[in-house]
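[stage:ingest] chain + small molecule (nicotinamide-adenine-dinucleotide)
[stage:ingest] validated
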Amino acid sequence: MNDKLKIAVVGLRFGDHVVENQIVTGRGSAWFSLAGVFDIKSSVSQARGSHYGVKSYSSFQAILADPSVNVVGLFTPPGGRAEMVREAIRSGKHVITTKPFEIDSAAALAVLEEAEALGMVVHLNSPSPKMPPDWQYVHDWRSRYSLGRPIAAHFSTWASYREKPDGGWYDDAKRCPAAPIFRLGIYSINDMVRFMGPAESVQVTTSRLFTERPTPDNAELTIRFKNGCIGGIFASFCVNDGNSYADAVVLNFENGTVYLNSAPPKSPRREVHMQLVIRDGEGPRMVDQAVIPFADRAGTYQWEALYRAIKGEKLEDTVTPAQIAEGIAVVEAMAKAEQTGTRVLVNNPHVVAKAPARC
Ligand SMILES: NC(=O)c1ccc[n+]([C@@H]2O[C@H](COP(=O)([O-])OP(=O)(O)OC[C@H]3O[C@@H](n4cnc5c(N)ncnc54)[C@H](O)[C@@H]3O)[C@@H](O)[C@H]2O)c1
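[stage:predict] done
[stage:export] tokens:
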């Protein structure tokens, strides 16, 4: 494409992986070209800028002052990101950023609403702007097969990390609550909230098995939604079975069960397999199934949607600021639940999104 938009990327640890695999090459490269990079560690900025043959900016403000930059990719730690997004949009820069968007739901909601009012685009990978295809299937099956009310959602994700403390946000329970949930389970929180509507209360259980960080490496979060559905997310850095980011989901409805990625994996994992089971006489029957490319499932960066939104196209059925803030309200309650060891009500009075009818 000749008319690529220019992106500058801020925060060059995971952000550098995004530059290398999604902007310089990969899916984003069809729509965006790299204008430059910035990290508060100036040696990192300079090394990566010269590696990619682009500008290494001396500050975030220098990016915001560069009229050639259309979009800022923000890959800094999650705390205080709303403030950086605010500076960007007020300077006329669109934003793409990553999960967890923020740890303050009110700050997140305020900046996302301001972006909408200014006509600026702010996209996240989770929750993604457009409904990802795996969840689109769940929605379609729910109505096509009259699955009824959602009853329970069970998410499991794991990897094998054996981490040492480094003094960063990953070591700080306030900035990284219930660490495996905040770092890996966050996708499932966002997916669930988008599907179920607002949460009512949370409980959390954690343990430290192998990590040398002060934060846990094994955790389970239980969410009670206002619609009565119970959601469970298990996330762990302790399972060394080669199936990193396993990401299995079982969704029980009144009249059927959806399985997503729930069988032993094939290697390499290029696809996500989904099945729907409903009652047939006295037994179960798989009545529908779907296969989607791994690269399209929930949590991936929707570069084409970002490009089209910036170009002024109205995208249908995109995630709302309230839905994004609801996920963060769950994180806020989870942090309190971790600190107190009790069930904590989700404080989301600023949230206006409604649960789907009769769920
Ligand atoms: N690490 C992963 O595999 C991974 C995967 C997906 C998403 N993410 C998300 O990406 C974000 C960043 O994660 P990370 O692992 O890279 O964190 P990190 O703390 O390891 O690295 C953050 C980088 O940003 C820089 N930085 C911090 N504040 C800055 C600022 N104000 N301006 C410019 N640079 C700044 C730091 O120097 C560092 O290089 C998090 O939200 C995380 O959840 C990480």
